[in-house]
């Protein structure tokens, strides 16, 4: 019992440290060779004057299957920031379900990242100026041992991801429409459409929020950032979505059921360790770095998974990997 408490304490402290440091963005902007302008920690806040600040401007082309804000200097583009703007919610996520929307600052017509300077201005690769809502969905079945719907990685050594997508608002949308449509299509392979829809609705009535708020994602810029809502839907007795059959080779999102327990992550980290001839301490440090690189600093919505990774790493560090699971 004492060893379990020790693991938990070390894990919690280490996880808190990871979260605190995740605000440090990578040197190069997401998926580019564009180097961010240097922002010392003391000058991160907009409330501190930074005369030598030289951010790089970058706005990517809009993906063909998406709708993006036009150039903010476009005279025909007049968004209502900090407000509901047509079908786009440009307010910050409420910190609590029944809380209030906090306002973010403005510099002329440009919204300002509430967590300060990033070294890049413009929309970046995001769809909107201001907040971009990302919903991450954890769908599980079972009770004592839970299986989760995850995206099968191309590389078997990579960490699994949960389904996620950007939405225009989180006021009434708690599951990305594309994901819902895919699950409904898979369900109709075994049930008639009406009953399939009933089973989905039955599951999605019961949700638990795991996280809501800002994430220090490497796609963020001074004028566009990600705010995420992470929700878990559980079907403990396999009466709803737990009935669905998923084959990652036949559905376009490569979804599958996966048990995500301590043993799963210990085994995953051991795969990394086995490929190296470093000392055990160095191996553990490298494993942590590799897995959190896969998560990406502040990667949207992986907080729940990250905690499991930290628990497994703590077990390895204390030499108790054999008791995992």
Automatic annotation (TrEMBL):
InterPro entries assigned to the protein according to its UniProt record, in alphabetical order: NUDIX_hydrolase-like_dom_sf, NUDT9
UniProt entry tagged with the keyword Disulfide bond: no
Organism domain of life: Eukaryota
Listed GO MF terms: ADP-ribose diphosphatase activity
Keywords: Signal
Extent of the signal sequence: 1-20
Cross-referenced Pfam families: NUDT9_N
Database matches in Gene3D superfamilies: Nucleoside Triphosphate Pyrophosphohydrolase
Protein name (database record): ADP-ribose pyrophosphatase, mitochondrial
Organism taxonomic ancestry: Eukaryota, Metazoa, Ecdysozoa, Nematoda, Enoplea
């Amino acid at each position: 019992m004492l060893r379990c408490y020790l693991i938990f304490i070390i894990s919690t402290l280490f996880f808190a440290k990871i979260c605190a440091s995740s605000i440090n963005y990578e040197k190069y902007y997401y998926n580019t060779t564009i180097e961010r302008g240097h922002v010392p920690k003391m000058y991160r806040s907009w409330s501190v004057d930074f005369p030598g600040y030289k951010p790089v401007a970058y706005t990517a082309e809009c993906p063909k299957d998406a709708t993006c804000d036009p150039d903010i200097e476009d005279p025909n583009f007049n968004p209502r920031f900090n407000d509901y703007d047509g079908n786009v919610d440009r307010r910050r996520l409420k910190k609590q379900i029944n809380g209030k929307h906090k306002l973010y600052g403005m510099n002329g017509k440009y919204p300002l990242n509430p967590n300060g300077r990033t070294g890049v201005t413009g929309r970046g690769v995001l769809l909107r100026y201001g907040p971009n809502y990302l919903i991450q969905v954890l769908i599980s079945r079972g009770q004592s041992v839970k299986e989760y719907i995850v995206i099968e990685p191309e590389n078997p050594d990579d960490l699994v991801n949960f389904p996620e997508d950007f939405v225009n608002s989180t006021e009434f949308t708690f599951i990305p429409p594309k994901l819902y449509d895919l699950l409904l299509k898979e369900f109709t392979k075994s049930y008639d459409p009406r009953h399939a829809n009933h089973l989905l609705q039955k599951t999605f009535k019961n949700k638990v929020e795991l996280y809501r708020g800002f994430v220090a994602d490497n796609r963020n810029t001074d004028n566009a950032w990600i705010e995420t809502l992470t929700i878990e839907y559980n079907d403990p007795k396999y009466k709803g979505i737990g009935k669905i059959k998923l084959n990652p080779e036949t559905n376009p999102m490569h979804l599958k059921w996966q048990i995500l327990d301590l043993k799963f992550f210990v085994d995953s980290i051991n795969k990394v360790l086995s490929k190296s001839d470093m000392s055990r301490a160095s191996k553990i440090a490298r494993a942590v770095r590799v897995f959190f690189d896969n998560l990406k600093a502040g990667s949207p919505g992986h907080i729940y998974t990250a905690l499991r990774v930290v628990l497994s790493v703590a077990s390895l560090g204390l030499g108790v990997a054999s008791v995992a699971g």
